[in-house]
Amino acid sequence: MRKISSMMLVLALAGCSKPAPDSNSVEQVQEMLNEPPADFAAGASRSAGPNIGVTAAPGVAFNYRYDFRMEAAKIALVQEEHAQACEALGIARCRITGMSYRLVNDRDIAGMLAFKLDPAIARDFGKKGVAAVGRAEGMLVRSEISGVDAGSAISAAGRAQGRLRDERTRLEARLKQPKLTEAERAEANSRLEEIARQIESTNVAREENQESLANTPMVFNYGSGEVVPGFDARSPIRDALRTAGQTLVGAVAVLIVVFGALIPFAVLAALLLIAFRLFRPVAARLSRKKED
After folding, report:
1. Structure pTM?
2. What are the C-alpha distances in Å from 152 to residues 58, 60, 86, 156?
3. Model confidence at 82, in pLDDT bands (50, 70, 90)?
4. 3.90.220, 3.30.950, 3.30.70, 3.10.450: CATH of 57-150+214-224
5. Cα dihedral 244, 249, 254, 255 sign
6. Phi then psi for 207, rounded to 5 degrees?
C-alpha cells in the first residue's frame, strides 16, 4: 500500500509541475495537424465547402480544380481578384496559364482561370480563392484534388535509362570485335538506334514529371446562377415554382389560341346582328305595304 501511495504522489507532483503550453507551441501543433485557423473555422459555411487538406507527400504531383457559382455580374470582379492575387505572388510562385470569359446566353456567364503554382502555396491559394468567392456571395459547388506519383515515375525512368545505357555499352563493345558478320553488325547498329530513341523518350517523360513536381496546376471555373439557399437548381421549391410558371404560361397560350380561333366567328356574328337590326325596319315596312 505504501508503494502504491508513493507512486500516486509522484505522478500527482509531476502533473502539477508540467508547464502550460504557450501560444507558440499551440500554433505549431495546429500547423502539424494541418488544422484551420480559428477565425477560418468560425467563418466556414456551406458556400466554402469542406476544409479537407491534402498532406504534402514527396514525389506526388497534385492537380487542383475548383468550380464556383455566383451572380453573373460578379464573375468578372472575382476573376480579376484571383488574377491580381496570383500576380502579387510573382511569376516565380504563381503564373496565369489560361483565361476565358464568355456569355452563355442572354443572362448566364461562364469563365475560367488557370494557374501554375509553387506546390508549397497551392492549397493556401485555393483556400483564399474560395474565401474571395464567399465574400462575393458565391459558393463552391465542386472541388477536386488529384495526385500522381511522379517521383516513382522519375525513379523508374532513371532505372530504365541505366539498363539502356548498359546495353548500349555492351553493343558498342561488340561492334569493336573484328570477326562480326555484316548481318550481326547491322543488327547491333539497329538496336543502338532503338536504344537512343528509348533514352530520349524516357528523358522527355522524366522532364515532364519533374515539371509537374515543380509547378502545381490549378483551375478556377466560374458559372452564374442562383445561390440563395433553397432556390438552387436542384431545389424542390424552385422546381415547383418553375412547374407552376410553365403551367400558367401554357394556360395563357391555350386561351390565346382559343380566342384567336373564335374571333372570326364572333366578328361574323356581330356583322349578322348589325345587318339584321338595320334591315328589320325595312322588312317591317314592306310587310305592312303588302298587307295594305
Report:
1. 0.52
2. 10, 9, 30, 6
3. very high
4. 3.30.70
5. positive
6. -65, -40
DSSP state of 235: -
**Cβ(70)–Cβ(222) under 8 Å?**
yes
CA terminus-to-terminus distance, the chain: 149
- Maximum CA extent, the chain: 151
Q: Are strands 109-117 and 94-103 parallel, antiparallel or unpaired?
A: antiparallel
- Single-letter amino acid, residue 198: Q
Q: How far is 155 from 162, CA to CA, in rounded Å?
A: 11
Distance CA 57, CA 151 (A): 10
- Residue 146 contacts residue 219 (beta carbons within 8 Å): no
Q: What are the pLDDT digits (tens) for 86-127? A: 999 999 999 999 999 998 888 889 999 999 999 889 999 999
Those residues with Cβ within 8 angstroms of residue 119's Cβ, 6 or more apart along the chain or in another chain: 56, 61, 62, 213, 214, 215, 216
Q: Nearest 5°: CA angle at 65, between 94 and 95? A: 15
3-class SS of residue 119: helix
- Partnered with residue 69 across adjacent β-strands are 139, 223
Q: How far apart are CA 155 and CA 265, in angstroms?
A: 88
CA 12 to chain CA mean position, Å: 54
What are the residue ranges spanned by the domains of the chain?
57-150+214-224, 236-292
